[in-house]
Protein 1
Amino acid sequence: MREQSAKKLKYKNAFLPHLVELITRNTMKEIKEDGPALICIPDISGFTRFMAETDLAFSRKIIPPLLRCLVASNTLSLNVGEVEGDAILFYRFGDLPSLKELTEQSKKFYNDFNAELESLKQQFPEDFGKYISTTKLSLKIILHAAEMTSTHIEGMIKLIGEDVVVVHKLLKNSVEDAEYILFSEKLLSHYGEDEVNELLNWDTLKDGKDEYEYIGEVKYKYISLVPAQQNTTPLKNNGRPVLPKITPLRSQARSAQQSKEPL
């Protein structure tokens, strides 16, 4: 009897991870969100040149911590839809945050990014002197109000809709600055003119527009982040919060619920 029980336990343990994955996938197929949403993309400027001018070993020391820092700086309960080499697509379905919340979140992304960069500079001074002296890594943030839907493919979130295409196109815009927040016209239409003028007042709010194939003209406003920069005190290792690993992301709410459900 003991031998049979041991065999049964062995096979159960062997198949358990596959059962968990199967249950998770089948359950997530049922989850679907759609409707109005916020899309926010912090994007690292200077990334392409940095990757071209540095070796792979050094880039591995720099880029992952910067991306993890951005994930950890999320204060608006935004979900992570995509993690690319130089950008993170955050999104949230439902009502938009207030313009003040969006502005403060953008400033936090920017200041935490610069603090992390300064911390990394102190950790790897020789590499920074060799590679970063001629290549400046900086941050721009794209904000857009979207109508979209989401689905899950093999446990990964996929956002679908024209606005998802638009916000990716806005990453390639005609703004010459390297550090700024870009607010799409569609996003700003949800806020009053007085509110916009009152909150976006630390620098000149400029008008911009670009033409994209199949989409047409997209208008936006943008404002420099440089005057909003705080004195960046390097983040200390012993005082730094534990940053999440960047992995294929699933529905956070569902994942939390699954961890409590017995198999």
Protein 2
Amino acid sequence: MVSPIWARIWHDQAPCRHFGYGRAVQSISAFYGVVIYMYWNERDHPVAHFHAYYAGRRASVSADGVVLAGSLEPRALAFVQEWARLRHDEIVADWERARRNEPLLAIPPLP
């Protein structure tokens, strides 16, 4: 669980981006140059997942760390998959928040 103080600090620094989706998506974590975003769209989102961006490349990644679409360079993908392994429960909890149209919580980065 993220402490309320850390979450507030992260929220103040966590920008929203559009990335061609036509809507702002909130970043929920960042580490080693990788930024993680999540948003909910019932039509397009049957599987719990997040979006990872690194060096101009992006990928949709399941909460289990499986790449659903797009690609990242191998080292960045390894970081993302390790983060997903460590933070699986928090990712799923944010996914459920997004489904209920509730604010997302920041998820700590890789150590």
Protein 3
Amino acid sequence: MTALSYSPRRDRVSRRQQRYELIRPLISLGRSHSAQAQSPSETARCKETIYCFGEFQFSPHRHLLLRRALPMKLGSRALDLLHLLIDHPGVVVSKSDLIRFAWPDTFVDESNLKVNISGLRAVLGETQEGLPHIATVPGRGYKFVAQVLREELKAVPAKPAPIEPRLDSFPAARTLHGREDELTALSYRLRSKGFVTITGHAGVGKSVLASELGRRLAGEFEGGACFVDLTTISDARLIGAAIAASLGANGSVESFIPATVDLLGRGRRLIVLDGCEHLAQAIGAAIDRLRDALPDLLVLCTSRSNLGCLAESVYRLLPPHQPIHTALRV
């Protein structure tokens, strides 16, 4: 293994074991994906680069990021951006170079880059020094700041998986207590109305309830369900791009509707939009545009207040062990 930044020599046996532990999850995964045999010459020519940093292992060949041997959910564009940044640790990569690498031969708005970088930062968290893995260099671009180790492996390449919509992006499941009545009522409301906003005070459990409902209903839709966290979006102009990016689409601010429609097709889908109160009017307008283009799309939102859309059904969520909800408008 070659350290991309200088480190003094240590005990060889200890370092060899440490390297193996870092890349073992990807080695095991590679064996499970190598069902199709290839000739010895093809295998000998094939090399795979694995990047290791902190608790993460990244394989550009498989478009796969692992943390503690568990796959992280990121769109294909975000992984392309990570590939270019991690291949040049400590070096400022310009915004134009990042856009050309992730969106070759395609014109996209710079907002797409900002949304995907924001998503990468959310997944990667902070380094051991308490800094973001990806630093912004004002007026120039972005820089990957963590120390990176790179391993070159001889391996049988996995067959590339087709690019599919990212419709399995829900946060980790949490235990719900005393909310079965609400889940039943919401399930019926969403199926019949198609667009429901769960409102209520902060901390009442709107996000957990919406996430659980999305998981339960995902099997009813041929494309499953997608969870979009909008709490990190502060600019109303980025809402459409954030939704498109969460689904794996390439659309710019202006073209997110065509990009999302192309990706989802005309089948029934469910999108859960979490944390809409800070940009309620803009998010409501984006939802109206999406549902006009995709009549079979179901939308479930969480917000401290309603979004003000004509087709919106508002579900007021009260704290547990209080009288059943009141719908403001059905």
Protein 4
Amino acid sequence: MTSTVTLISMGRYVIDTHGPEPSYLQLASQLRARIASGEIGPREALPSITYLTGETGLAVGTIRKAIGVLVDEGLAYTVPGRGTFASPRKN
């Protein structure tokens, strides 16, 4: 029996669609790492939903769910009509 692994990698993000971890959690983890490393600085915009859809091939709802995880964790905040931004770092 062979197993097939589907990795979606169209840019900076790699999503294993057949892995044990849901796609939205994989994307949230990769965005979280970019925030933690400072690649996305405090109060800087996260990539837009449109951009992430094009980069990952994931559905808009999946991307919104990933961003929601970061918002729930306090790592990001959303400004209606403007986008989602990395939260200021806590000392």
